[in-house]
Write a structure and sequence with these properties.
heterodimer; A: alpha/beta; Rossmann fold; 8-stranded mixed beta sheet; 9 strands; globular; B: alpha/beta; Alpha-Beta Plaits; Fumarate Reductase Iron-sulfur Protein, Chain B, domain 2; FAD/NAD(P)-binding domain; 4 domains
């Protein structure tokens, strides 16, 4: 557990705030004066998980650094919907970069700050799964290897949503994208080897690696704040459902993220210097069907004749996560 | 052009882009009617007073509670809490202990000496209340707070009605009753004890009253014809319970049989046990499922060693014994005789077969309608005679303290309007909130706090109060188990989960509002609101 669970106060740890709690025990998002890193008027779709995840993460980082923060951004949805020139939604110093070099740009900003002796200003780099796990991977790995003083945040919506929902190396098996249509003998994305970048980041033995979802705000904020306590390369991978690309209702974004965690499809954990130190336990375990069914990208697995074999293989992946990251512990109070 | 190289436009903000125009439906905040409030016969705003109790502001909680009901300490003991039966938390773990928190607030008010706010400016109108039972006192309280001059005429020597002469001490200690009644009298209500109203029209004329509220209750025990020997001792339950308040305790003997299946039968059986009966048997003609007495009462009676003979009727009473016939239920659920008889030993037989209303004070009053021994009233609680209202057990009702208190409040509102020459319009009820409108994920599991119970041996031998109360820490815990169904409790979820930052937080106690310039209508706030206090409505186009 990355944070102190709130003992019973009408609601516990799960709501954004709670009028009965001391302000310091409420989330950053509950504060009237939160920095609101992404302002209203951005052009993300209704119910965008990435817009939400980015605001959650950056508001927490802004609070942790006393607003001494610069962001570098990879091309992707996040950049396009916030920054159609000359308008910007960003309420912090923010730098555009290419699709693949956000990590390198952030490294440069950090080096420049160091050269100028401005050690108090911190740097985050951010991008989607395409810009992180595929195109920007070389720069990211280099940043890790050099242990540059950057927090890299990946908002994972499991495909290239900005360009029209094409498959990325973070797309899960069997999911429909526009380049992995549900046709042929094995419809949807292939069951490949997978490419789970948090595990790769851990292999670099950088100071801090964590995963989070938009469904667990207190956990997400605690991880961002913890990351800002380290110097050196840090990596946070945030699971952000995409209503457009996944074919889910816009009001279900948080529910889908919650189901990803509760079914074991997405493990939520943190690691320091390459070692797993804690994981967020599943509160009420559910079968993967509960996660898959509300998503149109998995609709071909159901219908009149459910593809039980594929569902069983997906369940096996979830079970492996649960076992590997120890997700079944006693319930969070 | 003094812009840097390659820059041609000024930096703009996305605020220029009003994404609210994308919306086809929009979220709106609303207060919905929680099931507890809907289920309360006294019309209490339960969720409303729990809200204050949750933050530890017990005095404010008590003030909100007593807007509707002046008797929290009494109610917290004798109410059968229909609110808890319908509580949404029951679907999660177990219902919120509303009744025990209410009792805590009532006891706290007595302990700390909280007083009601002073009445509104005097209206100059005089109202006669007949009967100082729950319904009459409730009406007097509400009328007094509205500024009317109220006089209560009570036939008996003490206040409280059935709360004193029907409900035994072990359920309602008399100091609690006295304290809550006195607080009402302190509002300036005039009380005349031992004043039986012989004719209501005469009394109204004599005292120059503008209106009257009748709440004389139903205190005449029903009799059934049972062939009895000369020496058989047959008494009725109401008289037994009433005489418990006097100097001479009733003499029931060692073997007591109670005939009937209502709450009064249970009360009198438990009283007999405490008076020293070694054997107390309730004889009831149907089965436990059909018994009108409340299950918790039956359970407590059984714990105290009271025996119940189901499916039996009493055929004959002799000195020292009764003849009982066994019954069986027919297809329609009615008991039918079987012709099998048995004899049980009994020193006395107590009849608890229901109560009738003493309607003598209504002799000669025009326009009244009496049906099945009760006075008929309209939806405004007024009888067929203008200016005479009635409530409580003397009108058709479920005959509980809570229903009586509810009648008193309702009648008081209508009397108030009637005196001012207007018609009382109750505020439109909020739409109800059901469990599927909540998002229970956000509530953590918390089992109900059990109130302490007196040891069985002391229950069998004394009139000490059976049910204990909560203390401050567990009353607070219990209050916080409330899900706040349908009413915002400021958890900040809507403010936090909006991807467009289109929810404006107005500050503590002020809730939130939507910024419709930017709300895209995704509906996430509605899905993630724990308590169902937001709904989507179609956008006007």
């Amino acid at each position: 557990m990355s944070f102190q669970p709130i003992k019973f106060y009408q609601t516990g740890t799960f709501t954004v705030g709670n009028r009965l709690l001391n302000p310091e025990n409420r989330s950053v998002q509950s504060h009237q004066d939160r920095s609101n890193a992404i302002n209203s008027g951005h052009r993300a779709c209704q119910g965008c998980g990435e817009a939400l995840g980015a605001r959650y993460a950056l508001d927490a980082a802004m609070e942790a650094t006393g607003s001494q923060l610069i962001a570098a951004n990879a091309t992707g949805c996040l950049e396009v919907f916030t920054t159609p020139y000359p308008e910007s939604s960003w309420q912090l110093p923010w730098m555009h970069s290419l699709f693949g070099n956000a990590a390198a740009v952030a490294t440069g900003i950090a080096a420049a700050l160091k050269a100028k002796g401005r050690n108090g200003v911190r740097v985050v780099a951010q991008g989607g799964d395409g810009g992180t796990t595929d195109i920007g991977f070389a720069c990211l790995s280099g940043m890790f290897e050099r242990n540059d003083d950057v927090l890299y945040i990946c908002y994972d919506n499991e495909a290239y949503m900005n360009t029209g929902v094409q498959r990325s190396s973070a797309t899960p098996p069997a999911a429909r994208t526009t380049t992995t249509m549900p046709v042929g003998l094995s419809p949807g994305n292939v069951f490949g080897q997978g490419k789970f970048v948090p595990a790769i980041a851990m292999a670099h033995e950088i100071p801090y690696v964590a995963t989070a979802t938009v469904a667990d705000l207190h956990d997400l904020e605690a991880k961002v704040k913890r990351a800002m306590e380290f110097r050196g390369a840090r990596y946070i991978h945030i699971f952000v459902p995409c209503p457009l690309g996944w074919g889910t209702a816009s009001h279900d974004t948080i529910r889908i993220a919650r189901l990803a965690h509760e079914t074991g499809m997405f493990p939520v954990f943190e690691a320091e210097h390459g070692e797993l130190i804690s994981s967020l336990p599943i509160r009420r375990q559910l079968p993967v069907e509960e996660y898959l069914k509300p998503q149109k990208r998995f609709a071909h697995l159901f219908g009149a004749k459910p593809n039980l074999e594929v569902i069983a293989r997906i369940q096996a992946r979830a079970d492996r996560n649960i076992q590997k990251y120890g997700l079944l512990q006693t319930e969070v109070a | 052009m003094d812009k840097p190289f390659a820059i041609t436009l000024d930096l703009g903000s996305s605020l220029a882009n009003h994404t609210g125009s994308w919306r086809t439906s929009k979220p709106v905040y609303l207060d919905r009617l929680p099931p507890c409030n809907a289920g309360c016969p006294a019309g209490e705003n339960i969720q409303g007073w729990l809200f204050h109790a949750e933050s530890g502001d017990y005095e404010q909680a008590w003030r909100v509670l007593t807007v509707d009901n002046p008797f929290p300490a009494i109610m917290g003991r004798v109410c059968y809490h229909p609110c808890e039966s319908v509580c949404n938390r029951g679907k999660l773990d177990s219902a919120v202990g509303i009744n025990s928190v209410e009792r805590f607030l009532g006891d706290e008010a007595i302990k700390r000496g909280w007083k009601f706010d002073a009445p509104a400016a005097s209206s100059g109108k005089k109202v006669l209340v007949v009967g100082a039972g729950p319904s009459g006192l409730s009406a007097a309280y509400h009328l007094a707070r509205s500024g009317h001059s109220v006089e209560i005429h009570e036939a008996g020597p003490l206040t409280g009605g059935m709360m004193r002469f029907g409900i035994p001490k072990y359920r309602l200690p008399r100091d609690v009753l006295d304290a809550e009644v006195q607080r009402i009298l302190n509002l300036g209500v005039m009380l005349k004890l031992n004043t039986k109203v012989a004719n209501i029209e005469d009394s109204m004329r004599a005292g120059n009253f503008d209106a009257a509220f009748l709440a004389v209750g139903a205190h005449i025990g029903k009799r059934a014809f049972i062939p009895a020997g000369d020496a058989a001792r047959i008494v009725d339950a109401v008289s037994v319970l009433r005489s418990m308040e006097g100097e001479d305790k009733p003499m029931l003997g060692r073997r007591v049989v109670v005939y009937g299946g209502g709450n009064t039968a249970i009360d009198v059986a438990r009283t007999a046990k405490r008076l020293g009966a070694t054997e107390t048997i309730i004889v009831y003609r149907r089965t436990r499922e059909k018994m009108p007495a409340h299950d918790s009462e039956v359970e407590e009676a059984l714990q105290e060693g009271i025996m119940i003979k189901w499916l039996s009727t009493i055929k004959q009473a002799e000195e020292g014994s009764l003849t009982v016939e066994k019954m069986k239920l027919d297809d329609k659920g009615f008991p039918q005789p079987t012709g099998e008889f048995e004899s049980i030993a009994a020193d006395s037989l107590v009849l608890a077969l229901g109560q009738d209303v003493d309607l003598s004070l209504l002799q000669g009053v025009s326009g009244l309608e009496i049906k099945d021994g009760t006075v008929q009233v309209g939806s405004n609680m007024m009888t067929g005679h203008k200016g005479i209202f009635a409530g409580g057990d003397m009108v058709p009702s479920e005959r509980t303290v809570t229903a009586g208190v509810g009648h008193g409040k309702k009648a008081a509102r209508h009397i108030d309007s009637w005196l001012l020459g207007t018609t009382y319009q109750s505020a439109a009820k909020h739409e109800p909130v059901s469990f599927d409108m909540l998002n229970p994920w956000y509530y953590t599991g918390a089992p109900k706090t059990m109130s302490p119970m007196l040891d069985v041996i002391r229950r069998q031998t004394s009139f000490d109060e059976v049910q204990g109360g909560l203390d401050e820490s567990n009353a607070l815990f219990e209050a916080r188990r409330c899900l706040s169904c349908g009413n915002c409790f400021e958890c900040d979820n809507c403010y936090g989960v909006c991807p467009d930052s289109a929810v404006i937080k107005l500050g503590p106690g002020k809730r939130f509002k939507f910024n419709y310039d930017y709300c895209k209508g995704c509906g996430m706030c509605v899905s993630e609101c724990p308590c169902g206090a937001i709904k989507m409505i179609p956008e006007d186009i």
